[in-house]
């Protein structure tokens, strides 16, 4: 393993002609020697040509959606460290060396860039409250505090990337990345990063309500997939409570009179209790399958090497070498 790890930047892009050149140039200036891969995702403008002229390796993903881009890039690229950043120039590239150094110093498998606005209009209306809502849901369901689950600025180790299934298609990929990290309990941390308005002349691809419902749907699917006993026990509890509501008066009446005059209500209460037991049993069985799947996933994860502990990002290495030379002189 070399002293300086191999770092690649993955930049998903859809019609970012007005911003991508600055993102690529800033990455090369901030992290000398980094390989920048711009994945053009069905753009109808000159995003690919501008990115290539700026010095990026340009690849094309014809399946539309950021999730498809990340899935393709994680499969294609082989490196020690992976930097994921959007191509709209809203994230401060100057924070990238610190994020990489944090990952290598841990060593961690995932460093999440928690967005800190540098302008009051950086967040679109409704996005901040929606992000807080999803953060609270993930933190409650998976018992791990998450501050910005929808951030698109992240750094990963090779073993995270190569053990991540990447099933999402569009903007819900951030939700899948976050839940994978907290559910697998990989070593991870958070770092504050600058977040600003989009460049003039560029347009956001986010649709607040449409994307919000997509994120809620994928969250629900992943929650049932990863925490089935939690979901089935909730339904079981609701059904049992309804069974008590309908059945308790029948039982009281039976002890008072020795008769059961309301047979339909008694049958309904019995059916609700039976369904509650079925849901509970289903949760136990599904939870056993989840445990076996997690064990297999963990064993595969352990086959991959950890990030090079104590290594430095390309930028940090260059500064260290420069300082040492001056000190010797």
Automatic annotation (TrEMBL):
A Pfam family assignment: Glycos_transf_2
Keywords from the named record: Membrane, Transmembrane, Transmembrane helix
Transmembrane segments: 229-251, 263-286
InterPro entries to which the protein is assigned, alphabetical: Glyco_trans_2-like, Glycosyltransferase_2, Nucleotide-diphossugar_trans
Name of the protein this chain belongs to: Glycosyltransferase family 2 protein
SUPFAM superfamilies in UniProt: Nucleotide-diphospho-sugar transferases
Higher taxonomy: Bacteria, Bacillati, Actinomycetota, Actinomycetes, Micrococcales
Protein family membership: Belongs to the glycosyltransferase 2 family.
Domain of life: Bacteria
Sequence ranges assigned to domain Glycosyltransferase 2-like in this UniProt record: 10-162
